[in-house]
Amino acid sequence: MENKRVTRRDFLARIGALGLVGLGGSALLSACGGQQQQPAHQGMSGATAEFSCTDVSGLTPEEIQMRESLQYTDRSPEPGKYCHNCQLYVPAPGPNQCGGCQLIKGPIHPDGYCTSWVQKVS
Q: Which residues form the High potential iron-sulfur proteins family profile domain (predicted)?
């Protein structure tokens, strides 16, 4: 059986990484909400909300590459295909905030789109 001791260097590196994640999370929250803005789901009527969910500062290069390879965008170029009506969308905790996705990491705009969009089953 292999001994899996954590060295002081590993411990400090992990604590530092947690601090960066905390900073990234707070930046993400401040970028995705807190200001008076239009309702998030106005994309269905043609107008779009004014907030952005493109801050990827807390993501790894691989997670950013995944977003890029799936061509994620905050504003859907496809009529009727929005993240908020995608089967993979994880709803935002409140209005004017970014949601999530079961497939890609990071903030997801309700009016966004990626090439893996799948119609939500009611």
A: 54-122
CB of 88 closer than 8 Å to CB of 80: no
Q: How confident is the model at residue 111 (pLDDT cuts 50, 70, 90)?
A: very high
Q: How far is CA 68 from CA 4, 25, 113, 115, in A?
A: 36, 20, 12, 10
What six digits make up the tokens of 23?
């900073």
Beta-bridged to residue 101, according to DSSP, are 89
Residue that has been written with the tokens 């952005």 in this structure:
52
Q: How far apart are CA 91 and CA 68, in angstroms?
A: 21
| DSSP bridge pairs for 86 | 119
Structural domains of the chain sorted by starting position, each given as residue range(s) with its CATH number in brackets: 8-101 (4.10.490.10)
pLDDT in tens, 6-36: 677 766 667 665 554 454 554 444 444 443 3
d(CA 28, CA 42): 22
Give the separation between CA 104 and CA 102, rounded to whole angstroms: 6
